[in-house]
């Protein structure tokens, strides 16, 4: 497993950030990094009585696709999403990713932490996935700052 965390101070509340995460029209603000594609389009399917289990079907700017499923949600505190059902090339090297959003109050506002776990298919897939993780981390760092401070973006 490959893990990394990015953090940013936020001028908006964790509740507002969570609201924006569930607004699929905002997902295209993820622009990618270098050869890592951004997000082009997202559709959402929600269960009747719960946010947990909500599925996001993501199409990236390079035509690749994956699914993101809400695993756990505690509004304003923590959100855990599992990414799976990748198309090529990621399906060849990873089984799934876990993205965790954690929020904390600070003296000057809020702090957002995004932690990723990337699960390689096997030992041979670890190296290319590690290289890709560097691109993902760069893109996530930029995106987290944009979400946390929309007036500065």
From TrEMBL:
CDD domains in the cross-refs: SRPBCC
Domain of life, per lineage: Bacteria
Name of the protein this chain belongs to: Polyketide cyclase / dehydrase and lipid transport
Organism: Chamaesiphon minutus (strain ATCC 27169 / PCC 6605)
